[in-house]
């Protein structure tokens, strides 16, 4: 993001800050989609602003993805084998000017969208840009969750921020221009010990921070950092949170999802509990209409679509590959027509509501049928994160996972080393032949988590119409 002149001490964020009449430096991506008023020559009335409703473009019409930008991370030669900087999630900013990503053992990275993609369609022969991190926050420890401020606009610096929660640390708010720490929100347990939140989420107005802990849900006022909060007791840890209007869904590691109604003063009233996943719930998202909820879990190959009006059983079951405990993100387009998800096999799956009505009820007992609309093999490693641009037909995908050392190869290396020390050439040749045979078998049944060929990257893809195809 471009540098703007800012004061060193930034005041706490308030709901009125997004409505302040401040001068805007530079272009804003949102301004490109607001139609200017046209003068009416047939009347003598004053010109009034009449912005038209922006229609979201059609996605995946050409069944082709064009790579726009990419960025990758690799482990240092001096680093230990257990230190692997792989991507663990990416999210577009609400105004669409930049993308925030979490890299394991390397903190937070902020990447800007190239200016030529703000309002134009790229040609098919466009040169792939190498993304550089304009802001890098080097955070130690495991980051549990992160979230953008919903009123973020690059024209108003005070709204450009995000929050994170990580291991052994409070909820922290970071500045999106210089990566500085603005403030923190601390939750304490019954013995007055600070405990980290497992999940964080802003409400839609941006006035409150909803944080999920092991036994409680705490609500912080954005303009009052510190340890002032209201809490609501829960029966199981809140692993993820999704909100829409006055509805809130709280997923847990015990495979359940709890629905709550949130009133104006921030009190929670339980609506019901949903069962259906085979693992801990890791990610949820409401559709734009707020009627349906999509949920995914760890080591669960199913995406469950729920109708919150009849939440006793899933409305639909979608299939994807999830062979890992880490969170595998999915996303719903702003128009509500497309559901996109990655998988541990590196394949991007797309469900189009016009071709495959994933919002309608099907036989939920038949979960072996793959009713996906499109499949795109984009990555050689686990595609653990996807994010659709809020205004443009651009998709951000992230790949990577922790790779273990194959125990079979470790045994073979020890056998080679022992035989070489003994100097038994005959037996060495025999075992070498056996090792070749073992490696062939291992290659046929290789697991991606044991592969040494890792891919840790963030890639932007054009998923709309192209000017020309060559």
Task: Write the topology of this structure.
Blueprint: E1 66-72, E2 87-92, E3 98-103, E4 107-112, E5 129-130, E6 133-137, E7 143-148, E8 161-166, E9 171-175, E10 181-185, E11 187-188, E12 194-195, E13 199-202, E14 208-212, E15 216-221, E16 230-233, E17 238-244, E18 247-252, E19 256-262, E20 268-275, E21 281-286, E22 292-297, E23 302-307, E24 316-319, E25 330-332, E26 338-341, E27 347-352, E28 374-377, E29 383-388, E30 394-399, H1 407-422, H2 425-444, E31 457-462
How would you sum up this structure in a few lines?
This protein has 470 residues and is mostly beta strands. It contains 2 helices and 31 strands. It has a 5-stranded mixed beta sheet with strand order 5-1-31-30-29, with no helix packed on it. Strands 2-3-4-6 form a 4-stranded antiparallel beta sheet, with no helix packed on it.
Describe the model:
- With 470 residues, this protein is mainly beta.
- It has two domains: 66-403 and 452-462, Methylamine Dehydrogenase, Chain H, CATH 2.130.10.10; 407-448.
- It has helices spanning 407-422, 425-444; strands spanning 66-72, 87-92, 98-103, 107-112, 129-130, 133-137, 143-148, 161-166, 171-175, 181-185, 187-188, 194-195, 199-202, 208-212, 216-221, 230-233, 238-244, 247-252, 256-262, 268-275, 281-286, 292-297, 302-307, 316-319, 330-332, 338-341, 347-352, 374-377, 383-388, 394-399, 457-462.
- The chain has a five-stranded mixed β-sheet with strand order 5-1-31-30-29, with no helix packed on it. A four-stranded antiparallel β-sheet has the order 2-3-4-6, with no helix packed on it. The protein has a four-stranded antiparallel β-sheet with strand order 7-8-9-10, with no helix packed on it.
- Helix 1 runs antiparallel to helix 2.
- Mean pLDDT is 79; it is low at 1-12, 14-27, 33-48 and 424-446.
């Amino acid at each position: 993001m471009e540098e703007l002149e800012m004061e060193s001490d930034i005041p706490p964020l308030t709901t009125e800050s997004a409505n302040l009449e401040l001068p805007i430096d530079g272009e804003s991506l949102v301004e490109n989609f607001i139609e200017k008023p046209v003068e009416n020559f047939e009347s003598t009335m004053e010109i009034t602003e009449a912005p038209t409703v922006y229609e979201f473009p059609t996605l995946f019409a050409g069944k082709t993805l064009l790579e726009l930008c990419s960025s990758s991370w690799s482990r240092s030669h001096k680093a230990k084998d257990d230190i692997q900087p792989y991507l663990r999630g990416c999210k577009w900013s609400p105004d669409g000017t930049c993308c925030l990503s979490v890299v394991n053992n390397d903190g937070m990275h902020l990447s800007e969208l190239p200016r030529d993609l703000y309002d134009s369609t790229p040609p098919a022969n466009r040169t792939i840009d190498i993304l550089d991190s304009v802001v890098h926050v080097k955070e130690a420890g495991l980051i549990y969750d992160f979230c953008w401020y919903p009123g973020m606009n690059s024209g108003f610096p005070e709204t450009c921020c995000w929050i994170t929660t990580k291991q052994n640390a409070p909820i922290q708010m970071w500045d999106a221009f210089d990566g500085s720490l603005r403030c923190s929100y601390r939750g304490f347990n019954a013995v007055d010990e600070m405990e980290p939140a497992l999940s964080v989420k802003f409400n839609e107005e941006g006035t409150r921070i909803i944080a999920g802990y092991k036994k409680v849900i705490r609500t912080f006022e954005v303009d009052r950092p510190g340890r002032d909060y209201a809490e609501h007791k829960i029966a199981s840890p809140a692993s993820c949170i999704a909100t829409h209007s006055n509805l809130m869904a709280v997923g847990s590691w015990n495979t359940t999802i709890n629905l709550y109604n949130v009133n104006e003063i921030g009190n929670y009233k339980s609506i019901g509990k949903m069962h259906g996943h085979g693992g801990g719930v890791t990610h949820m998202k409401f559709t734009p209409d707020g009627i349906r909820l999509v949920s995914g879990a760890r080591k669960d190959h199913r995406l469950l679509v729920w109708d919150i009006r009849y939440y006793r059983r899933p409305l639909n079951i979608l299939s994807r590959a999830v062979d890992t405990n880490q969170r595998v993100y999915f996303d719903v387009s702003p128009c509500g027509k497309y559901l996109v998800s990655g998988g541990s096999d590196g394949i991007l799956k797309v469900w189009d509501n016009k071709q495959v009505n994933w919002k309608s009820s099907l036989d939920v007992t038949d979960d072996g049928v793959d009713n996906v609309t499109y499949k795109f093999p984009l990555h050689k490693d686990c595609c653990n994160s996807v994010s659709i641009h809020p205004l443009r037909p651009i998709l951000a995908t992230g790949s990577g996972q922790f790779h273990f050392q194959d125990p079979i190869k470790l045994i073979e290396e020890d056998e080679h080393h022992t035989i070489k020390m003994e100097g038994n050439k005959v037996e060495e040749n025999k075992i070498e032949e056996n090792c070749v045979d073992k490696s062939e078998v291992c290659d046929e049944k290789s697991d991606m988590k044991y592969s040494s060929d890792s891919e840790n990257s963030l890639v932007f893809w054009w998923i709309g119409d192209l000017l020309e195809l060559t």
